[in-house]
Structure formats: C-alpha cells, structure tokens
Design brief:
heterodimer; A: 359 residues; Methylamine Dehydrogenase, Chain H; 4-stranded antiparallel β-sheet; globular; B: alpha+beta; Immunoglobulin-like; Serine Threonine Protein Phosphatase 5, Tetratricopeptide repeat; 3 domains; 4-stranded mixed β-sheet; flat
C-alpha cells in the first residue's frame, strides 16, 4: 500500500511545525508560498497565524489573536489583489479580514446562534463568474449565504421549518457557478442528510440521506457545470455523486467506498485535476484517490427518463502521518501537488505529492 | 542372574584390538553395547559380557559390527603397544567396581558434553541466519529510504524554483503597476492642464497636491483596479429563504449506519408488543372495554402506585401482563411495587423479565434499563446479597455514568461489602 512503487504518486512530508494551539483549519494564501493556520488557543481565544515556506521550514510571519476561537476560513470570495480572509468562529460570527490590517474586520456579522462549522467562498480569486459570496453552515441548523457588499442580512437563508427539530449542519460547499446567475450550495448535516440548494431559483433542488453524519462535501470544481460531488461521512465511508444527470425520483447516481476505518474528516480535490482527490481520516491517514468515468455517463431507465451512471474510484496512495484525526486539508492552487494538512496533534504539515502528472 | 558370555576370541595389532564375540540366538542392537575408554559391556538379556580393558582405547573411533549371532569389535588403542591380555586379570573386585562406575560416569559426561556442543552450534546457526535476514531487510529499508530522500530533495528544489518564480512575478507586477499608475497620473495631469489652460491659471502646487498618488502603495493600486472591476460585478442577490425538513426519525439521536440493525429490531419488538397477543382469556369477556387495554391498565397502575396503594397497583399490572406479556414497562413498574411491598424475590424476577424484554440495548430504552438495574440491585441488597446488588448498580452506572444517586448508592454497597469482609 504505502510502498515506493515506480509510477505511483508519493506523498512526501516536506515540513512539520508544532503549534501551541488546537488547529482547526489551514489554508494556502493564493498566489504565494504562504499559509494560514486558524484555531483555538488554550485560553479560549482565537488564533490566526501566517507562515511562509522558506528553505524547508515554516517561518512565522504574523500572529493575530481574536476574542473567539476560529473554526474555519476561506479565501474563496476574495479578489486576487486583496486576498481577504473570511472566517467563521465559535460564537457564530462571520468576519472578513484584511490580513495587512487585521485589527478591525472589513465585514462582520453575527450570522448564527451557534458555532459556524463550515465556510466556503465563490466568485473570487479570478475563478468563475458572478458576485463574490460566502456561505456558512452552523450547528444551529441553518445555512446562510452572504454578500460582503450587503451588511447584516444574508442573501439566502436555508433554515428548518417552524417546529422542526434542528440538526447540526457540518459542512457546506458552493458549486455550479459557471455563469453570473447559476449557483448551488450543497450542505451536509449530522444526521446524514445532504441537501442541494439552487440559489438562482431559491429552492431545494435535491436531497438524500447517506445514513451517517456528513463530515465534508466538495464539488470537484466550483466554477463549472456541476460535475461530481464527494461527500464523506462517519464510520469510514465516502460517496461520489455524478452530478451531470438528475433523475426525477432517484436523484444522482453515486458510488461509495469504505476507507480509513474511521471518520473521514475532509475531502479536497486537486485544483489542477478534478478527478483526483484526497481524503483525510480520523486515524491520521491520508488517501489519494482517482475517479474513473464509466463508458456511458448516463442511460435511460425503463420509463425513458435519463439517469446517471456512477464510475469507479481507485486508491492511488495512502500514508499515515499522525495518530490524531487530520481535520483540515488544502491543496495549493499555484503549485501542483503541494498541500497542507492540520491534525489534532497540534501539528501542521506541508506535504508534496509527486508524480501527479503521470496519473 | 545374567548368563556370562565366555566364548569370545581376540587378536591384536600394534594399534588396534579385534574382538569377536558370539552372541548366540539373540539380536544385538547398538543400544545393547556400552563402551568407554576402559570398559566394554554388551548386555542382551539374559546374556551379559563385560571386559575391563587392559589399556585405554579411543572409544569415539572404535567400531562394532553386528552380524548374525556375532559382534565384531575394532578397538583402536590409545597408546600403541602390545597388550598382554584383553582384560585386566588380577584386578580386585573393588577395582573392577570402581572402574565400572567410572566408566559409566565418563560416558554420561561425554553424552552431556555432546548435547551441549550440539546446542551451541544450533544457536550459532540460528544467530547467523537471523543476522543475515536482518541485513537483507536493512538493505531493503535503506534502499526505500534513499528513494524517498531523492524524491524529497527533487521536490524541495522544485519548490524553491517555484517560489523564486512567484517572487519574480510579484516584482514584475509591482513594477507594472507603478508604471501604470504613473501613466494614469500623467494622463490626468495632462487633461487637467488642458482644462486649466482653457479656464484660468491656478498655482502648480495645488495641482500637485491634489493628484499626488502614493507610489507603491497596495491600497491605492487596488483601489484603481477595484473600481473598474466593481462595475462588472452583478448586484447582490435579492434575499430569499428556503425552508427545509430533515429526514424523519423515530429516535432523537442522529442516524448511524452501524446502529441501524439494532434499532430496527427494537422498533419491531415495540410494535409487536403493542398488539395484544394473548387470545384465550375467556374470563375477560365481562371486563369493560378500557380494562382490556394494557396501556390503560398500566396508567391505572401508575396512579395507584403514586397514591401508595401498592397492592391495587400490582393487581392492575397483573391483569395487563395477562393481556400482553411483552411490554417491558409493565414488569418494570410491577417490580417497583414489589419493592415497596418488600416482595423482594418477586421484584428481582420482574426486573429481570423487564431487562430481558429491553433488548437490544439502544439509546431509546436507556432510561428503562437504568431503572430496571437499580430496582433489581436494591432488591438484592435488601436480601443482603450485596455482591449481586453491586453488579447491578455498576451496570446501571455504565449506562448512565452521570447519575450521582446511583454512584453514591454503589459506594455505600461497596463499603458494606468491605465491612462484612473484614469481619
């Protein structure tokens, strides 16, 4: 499995850095060799650290402390020049920071009543079209979409019906943003529900239940006609949905795979190749996968309605880096194969995956 | 008494003695021959031959050939020389005895030494084999390590190259921007100059101050280009709300695939239990409609328990059980009544029956199970069966570790047990 096979991609550990706080999220700063670590210090405050990769080590450039611990962050809605960071914290506040002047947020709203578990941004970084928007999913069961130009109120709000007992939302992701109008948000909940919201028509487009809490969802590319969606869950399973063909009753076709033998915390697609993705597990392992499309991506069912055909997933490489869960993972958008992962053993690791060109 | 063999004959050369010994009628094997430096014995029951040799021989190299009814010995002398006779003739009985024993001892020692030597060689061989395999594995590991190291170095170099590229790009951009900015400012200046020339002639200083850009400042750079981009962005979306429902579920906990089978079983059992199953109760014909409903009877029982009328409560539960003996809560509540009435054995029975019916253990029936364990534990303790009582309390604690009352009671029982043990 983890052998030095001749043509298989290898996961090379480049740098390791021990931190003095609990790391919840780590992200590359676009167009740079810098990365950001977000987390919670022991005394209950939020920490942002900016590191730069220099000659085989991470040099700390800046450390910022905030009142509340920070759970997640994204550069997805920022412009390439400004590179503002949007964060969600434990108190339910969404803040957008200018890292050059981080004392006061550029945009701030107390969007949720409970911790913001997941955040995603779209429309920035020169990727895709349309307005920059940020989506947050929270333990209060709601998913809200924000536009940094509109204060205080979200531009979309997905909340439970009155009287419905709420379920925690654990993960959110944007997709289908291939022109100015189209956009979808996918949200995963702790009871196994996955819901797909269409922002153009403001409606629920699809929902399903994968029988286990959904830890992470991601489209393979945000800015194209939605192609594939990967959803990972507890109890070591993940599902890959083919999003090109929606059947009126059966929804989207999927293939599922068991891996890691523990919670699969994150899935991240390689920005340079949307059929390769990495999953991180609760036992400190990383698996690199490749999706292969079937011969025919859709077929007709007995009534003549189109339904999708799911392909197959093959394991390219796996490696165990830690004994604690690897809770965050991010590929560098600028250098193919460079990625950063953060684990609950208070270590951030920069890894390089080689031979991805030969896959 | 063994029969001594006397029909032997011998001859000798300078270095060896050749002894032939006829052994009539019996098979001789190697085990029957015993030979040391000075003592030779052949014992094939009932025959016996022994000889105390004249001089010592080399017993390791000497041979014995066993043929048909005859054994032929080739004994190599330790010292070259001619023997006067085969055996020591005028040896006293004690000397003979002594020599015999010595011989046996020596043989033993030799055997021991041989086994020791064998063991040592075996150990050496094993060690050698182990070391060899270790070396091979080490070599393999090193090879893999080296491959990985090479990979790592290659990759690090690439990374450094990429970073340098990034820096170059950034610098270029900066220079470009400054150039652009400068140009734009110059253009504006030109326009202003034109305007001014047409109208009036203001002081040049005001011109300069108004149009003074801060060169190289990121903020204003982006301000210029940002203004341009904003015009291209669509307006913020008009707000909307989507109301959602979650997948319906009987249990309050979130769905977990590994627990699905158990939960299905429990639900199935509950559903079955609610249907009245006992059919042949003819005496029930004259009961009122509501008195045939186990749930209604259970409620009646609960009310009577609350008012302290334990006997009546037991009656209600009894009737309910006759109607439907699969409802665990009936047994559970009846156990509580029996406890109050000090019918301790009945309380234990009922709690046990309730626990039986409360399988499989799911979060849904946690409360009921805790109560069942606690009631049974109490009954045991009141019967002075403290060990069993403690077991049940600990089972209850396992399900509900945060319950302080159960913890305290468990502690008390432990103390009682320790107290009785010390007595």
């Amino acid at each position: 499995a983890g052998g030095a096979g001749a043509e298989r991609p290898q996961v090379v550990s480049h740098v390791q850095q021990a931190l003095s706080y609990t790391l919840f999220d780590c992200k590359w700063v676009p167009r740079s060799a810098r990365l950001l670590c977000l987390g919670s210090a022991a005394r209950g405050t939020g920490v942002l650290q900016l590191y730069e990769l220099r000659a085989g080590r991470l040099a700390l450039l800046r450390e910022i402390e905030k009142a509340k611990p920070i759970k997640c962050g994204t550069f997805g809605a920022a412009s390439l020049q400004q590179r503002y960071l949007a964060t969600g914290d434990f108190a339910g506040s969404l803040n957008v920071w200018n890292l050059e002047a981080p004392e006061i947020p550029v945009y701030s709203v107390k969007g949720h009543k409970e911790i913001i578990n997941s955040i995603d941004g779209v429309g920035g970084l020169g990727i895709g079209e349309g307005a920059p928007e940020i989506v947050t999913g929270s333990r209060d069961g709601t998913v809200k979409v924000w536009d940094p130009r509109q204060k205080d109120t979200p531009v979309a709000n997905m909340e439970p019906v009155q009287g419905e007992s709420k379920r925690d939302c654990w993960t959110v992701a944007f997709g289908n943003a291939y022109n100015q109008e189209e956009r979808v948000v996918c949200a995963g909940y702790d009871n196994g529900d996955i819901k797909l919201f269409d922002l153009k028509t403001m409606s629920l487009r699809w929902e399903t239940n994968i029988k286990n809490g959904v830890c992470s969802v991601e489209f393979d590319r945000k800015d194209v006609n939605m192609n594939k969606l990967v959803a990972t869950s507890l109890e070591g399973k993940f599902h890959v949905f083919d999003m090109r063909t929606q059947h009126p009753t059966k929804g989207f076709a999927s293939v599922s795979e068991k891996a890691h033998k523990s919670t699969i915390w994150q899935v991240r697609h390689l920005p340079q190749n949307r059929d390769i993705f990495m999953t991180s597990g609760g036992a400190g392992s990383l698996h690199l996968w490749k999706y292969e499309y079937p011969a025919q991506r859709s077929k007709k069912d007995s009534e003549g309605a189109e339904m999708g055909v799911a392909g197959s997933v093959s394991l390219l490489q796996n490696v165990t880096l830690s004994t604690q869960p690897i809770s965050s993972l991010d590929w560098s958008p600028d250098k193919k194969g460079l990625c950063v992962c953060g684990a609950f053993d208070q270590t951030v690791r920069v890894l390089i995956v080689t031979k991805l060109n030969k896959v | 008494m063994p029969v001594w063999l006397r029909g032997h004959s011998w001859r000798q050369s300078g270095s060896a003695v050749f002894l032939s010994l006829p052994v009539p009628g019996v098979r001789v094997t190697a085990a029957n021959i015993f030979c040391t430096e000075r003592y030779l014995k052949v014992s094939v029951p009932p025959f016996l031959f022994e000889a105390i040799l004249y001089a010592p021989i080399d017993d390791t190299n000497s041979t014995a050939k066993i043929g048909n009814g005859i054994v032929f010995f080739t004994l190599y002398k330790k010292e070259v020389g001619m023997w006067e006779s085969l055996t020591l003739e005028n040896a006293s009985k004690e000397k003979l005895q002594y020599l015999r024993e010595n011989a046996v001892l020596k043989a033993h020692e030799k055997a021991k030494e041989e086994t020791e030597a064998k063991k040592v060689t075996k150990r050496e061989h094993k060690k050698y084999a182990l070391e060899a395999t270790m070396k091979l594995e080490e070599a393999e590991r090193k090879r893999i390590e080296e491959l990985k190291e090479q990979e790592k170095q290659k990759v690090t170099k690439e990374l450094e190259l990429w970073k340098d590229q990034l820096k170059d790009v950034e610098n270029q951009k900066k220079v470009q921007k400054e150039g652009q900015l400068h140009e734009e400012v110059e253009q504006l200046k030109e326009k202003k100059k034109e305007k001014i020339n047409k109208t009036s002639i203001p002081s040049e200083e005001t011109l300069k101050t108004r149009l003074k850009p801060t060169k190289g400042c990121r903020g204003s750079c982006s301000m210029f280009s940002e203004n341009l981009k904003e015009e291209q962005l669509p307006a913020p979306r008009s707000s909307g709300t989507i109301k959602i429902n979650f997948t319906s579920r009987v249990f309050p906990t979130a769905l977990r695939e590994s627990r699905v089978a158990e939960e299905e079983e429990w639900l199935h059992k509950q559903a079955e239990a609610r249907r009245i199953i006992s059919a042949d109760l003819s005496e029930l014909k004259d009961l009122k409609e509501e008195e045939k409903n186990p749930d209604w009877l259970k409620d009646k029982g609960n009310k009577m328990f609350a008012t302290g009328n334990y006997l009546a409560a037991v009656n209600a539960y009894n009737l309910a059980v006759r109607l439907n003996n699969k409802l665990p809560l009936l047994y559970l509540n009846r156990a509580a009544c029996h406890l109050k009435l000090r019918n301790l054995h009945k309380a234990i029975e009922d709690s046990s029956k309730a626990l039986e019916l409360l399988t499989p253990p799911v979060p849904d029936n946690e409360n009921a199970r805790v109560k069942a364990y606690v009631r049974r534990g109490t009954a045991f303790c009141q019967l002075e069966l403290y060990a069993e009582g403690l077991q049940d309390y600990e089972a209850a604690l396992k399900i509900d570790p945060k319950n302080k009352t159960i913890e305290k009671d468990a502690e008390k029982i432990r103390h009682v047990i320790q107290g009785t043990m010390q007595n």
